[in-house]
Write a structure and sequence with these properties.
This protein is mainly beta. The chain has six helices and 21 strands. Strands 1, 2, 3, 4, 5, 6 and 7 form a seven-stranded antiparallel beta sheet that branches. Strands 8, 9, 10, 11, 12, 13 and 14 form a seven-stranded antiparallel beta sheet that branches. Strands 15, 16, 17, 18, 19, 20 and 21 form a seven-stranded antiparallel beta sheet that branches.
């Protein structure tokens, strides 16, 4: 996953996962991510859609499955293979409410979405497994197989129009650990309530520092024994920061030594309890730390982080800024231009929220994909400029797994402006399971 882009859009942008948390340990980014996702409205001009006339009542030739899902083939496909429950699919979709409102749609954006069937609502996942590549199908999903009242989603049944464009073979889920329900008596306990035990023999003593990155493999199960996340599904080891994911996952990463594999029992309080619409209950993770990667420490908080100095200038929107260094560039980014920048973010109390400096890699992202206040400031900067910004709450972004609800202070250095527009595909968090 593009670490710099994730940080630029979670610490700085309005990308609310799951958002819930979208790092390892999160059903949105599937490594505990899940990402969060960019604001769908900024993707591409919305294309008007005409609501089908049969949203409230399936036609007589529609087929009902034992689960209660009703579906009808709108156009046949040419493929032979059908996706399995653990596969990924490339699709065009529109989710309708029975009264004809569009809840979410890749067709409106004219950009297909890549989905993992384990992440979508049960009725949608069941319907996808009936399809072949090239097929278009309409699914009438009853409430019990839809969003089930999750925050920010429609209540009651929904209708999904979906076209299957491609299938990516996934890895069958691993069976849950035998001690899933409760840790054994010899499991260690931390002050926070996290339980853990070593799997195998110790292989090293090098532990990551607070700003280091780690390369890990992991699998996570919910209280019902469902594997909701795994590096097997993600395609291999993942490179993560120690601020990645839910609190219990972050604490687990810090406890590991290079070469160790441990099992962690994460209580709900350290999992998704405070993130509506995500997994409920405790979690169990098996995590193996393959490598510790030394990373730079973040810059110190600015002395004037608490409030703008008297000499600070202001944009019409209310964003205050102080020029740290003037650049020598001539051009300025447009509202949809892709830029490269180093960004560090603090709260007014001086707490570091995020920094590309600690990853030693600048962020590369579209100006329209980030927090409005930051995007406004970038459009006034030239390459080489370095500014300190005081951005009011309403111009930061929605709260996410590590983002404060309130004003933020950004130190931004514009490194490059790209002529080509950024093209990004994402999965809207509201259409996920």
């Amino acid at each position: 996953m593009g670490v710099a882009l994730l940080v630029f859009s979670s610490g700085l942008a309005g990308c609310g996962q799951p958002s819930a948390p979208a790092p390892a340990g999160s059903p949105a980014d599937k490594a505990g991510a899940p990402p969060a996702a960019a604001n769908p409205a900024s993707a591409a001009p919305a294309q008007p859609l005409t609501a089908p006339t049969d949203l409230k009542s399936p036609p007589t030739d529609a087929v009902r499955s034992p689960s209660g899902l009703v579906s009808k083939v709108l156009s046949a496909g040419s493929g032979q293979e059908r996706p399995a429950a653990h596969d990924r699919v490339k699709v065009h979709y529109t989710v309708w409410t029975p009264d004809g409102q569009v809840f979410a749609s890749s067709a409106q954006r004219r950009a297909p979405a890549a989905l993992h069937l384990a992440d979508v609502m049960p009725g949608w996942a069941e319907g996808m497994q009936l399809m072949v590549v090239g097929e278009r199908r309409r699914l009438w999903v009853p409430e019990k197989l839809a969003y089930s009242g999750k925050d920010g989603t429609p209540e009651g049944p929904v209708v999904v129009d979906v076209e299957l464009l491609g299938i990516g073979k996934g890895t069958p889920p691993q069976p849950p650990p035998q001690d899933l329900a409760a840790p054994p008596a010899d499991a260690e306990r931390t002050e926070s309530g996290l339980r853990h035990r070593l799997l195998g023999t110790p292989r090293g003593s090098l532990r990551p520092g607070p700003y280091d990155q780690v390369r890990v493999v992991f699998s996570g199960w919910d209280a019902q024994g469902r594997m909701f996340d795994s590096t097997q599904v993600r395609g291999g080891p993942q490179l993560l920061s120690l601020d990645h994911g839910i609190p219990g996952f972050r604490e687990a990463l810090a406890l590991l030594a290079q070469g160790e594999k441990r099992r962690f029992w994460i209580p709900e309080e350290l999992a998704y309890k405070h993130y509506p619409g995500t997994i409920r209950g405790p979690l169990v993770y098996d995590i193996e730390l393959l490598e510790v990667i030394d990373m730079p420490e973040p810059p110190p908080a600015p002395k004037d982080v608490a409030r703008p100095p008297k000499g600070a200038k202001r944009l019409p929107s209310g964003v205050a800024y102080r020029v740290i260094r003037n650049g020598e560039g001539k051009n300025r980014p447009g509202p949809t231009t892709k830029v490269e920048a180093h960004v560090s973010t603090w709260t007014p109390k001086g707490r570091l929220v995020d920094s590309t400096i600690t990853r030693n890699e600048p962020a590369r992202v579209g100006v329209d994909r980030i927090a409005p206040g930051l995007g406004q400031a970038l459009q006034h900067m030239v390459v080489g400029d370095k500014w300190l910004l005081w951005v009011p709450k309403e111009l930061t972004s929605v709260a996410s797994y590590k983002e404060p609800e309130g004003p933020l202070v950004y130190e931004v250095e514009l490194l490059a402006i790209y002529k080509k527009k950024i093209k990004v595909e994402w999965i809207e968090p509201e259409v996920l399971k």
